[in-house]
Amino acid sequence: MADWVTGKVVKVEFWTDALFSLTVHAPILPFTAGQFAKLGLEIDGERVQRAYSHVNAPGNPDLEFYLVTVPEGKLSPRLAALQPGDDIQIVSEAAGFFVLDEVPDCTTLWMLATGTAIGPYLSILQEGKGLDRFTNLVLVHAVRYAADLSYLPLMLELQQRYEGKLRIQTVVSRESVSGSLTGRVPALIDSGALEEAVGLPMTTDTSHVMLCGNPQMVRDTQQLLKETRQMTKHLRRRPGHMTAEHYW
């Protein structure tokens, strides 16, 4: 059984009506970039809990999580209503295998995310460990509207920090925005538009593709890459070209 500890809310930052970031201080155990924690609140006499990935790098005492409010949800509206100083429950030990240690060597590491699933990649990139073995890093954040690109300033800061090694590409599906591709990730891969915009190929001999977010995007992209690029799921016993995590 997981050990729960009590943390304190330090900051609640709203990006849009539905998107917000929660910063917490809590006595948790060390974690690996890309892993998730469980947050919980006592509601009607029982603990309601959900898994959320760390946005912060390991070692940063500001535990940051990127959330979307589900209006009919039991937990997220209450998390959005928290104030600095409020108590919050958090599991002391993070979990999950969406980490760089599980990714094989390649020339180009593609990190594809939808919505709040950008979090694990920001944790990995902010820490910066284990990335020397890749020549190129590509971070793709797909959202519905430009206003949903909450962490774009941080993404651009990271792009500067990596001095040409990291390429950022935003995708907006429901409006046309300068600098962003328009549409869904699978279609942009299928048409070649994503590779053209980034300037790098997505092939079995150069690339590994990490997928995190909307389960439909993950499934559709995996199927497309399997059928058109001959890519396979990566398993420890059988190395492949795709590593995925569904975000709900």
Write a short abstract of this structure.
The chain is an alpha/beta fold. It has helices at about 75-80, 120-125, 150-160, 185-190, 195-200, 215-230, and strands at about 5-15, 20-25, 35-45, 45-55, 65-70, 85-90, 110-115, 135-145, 165-170, 180, 205-215, 240-245.
CA distance, first residue to last residue: 21 Å
SSE topology string: EEEEEHEEHEHEEHHEHE
The count of DSSP E runs of length 2 or more, i.e. the number of strands, is 12
* Poorly predicted runs of 5 or more residues: none
> Biggest β-sheet, characterized?
6 strands, antiparallel
Overall pLDDT: 96
Largest sheet strand order: 4-3-6-1-2-5
What is the 3D shape? globular
In helices, the fraction of residues equals 10-25%
- Fraction in beta strands: 25-35%
Structural Rg: 18 Å
Broad structural category: alpha/beta
Question: Topology of this structure?
Answer:
Blueprint: E1 4-14, E2 19-25, E3 36-43, E4 46-53, E5 63-68, H1 76-80, E6 87-91, E7 108-114, H2 119-127, E8 136-143, H3 152-161, E9 166-172, E10 181-182, H4 185-190, H5 193-198, E11 207-213, H6 215-229, E12 242-246
List keywords for this structure.
single chain, 248 residues, alpha/beta, 6-stranded antiparallel β-sheet, 6-stranded parallel β-sheet, 12 strands, globular
Describe the overall structure.
By secondary structure, this protein is of the alpha/beta class. It is 21% helix and 33% strand. The chain contains six helices and twelve strands. The chain has a six-stranded antiparallel beta sheet with strand order 4-3-6-1-2-5. A six-stranded parallel beta sheet has the order 10-9-8-7-11-12, sandwiched between helices. The longest helix is centred in the C-terminal third of the chain and has 15 residues. The chain is globular.
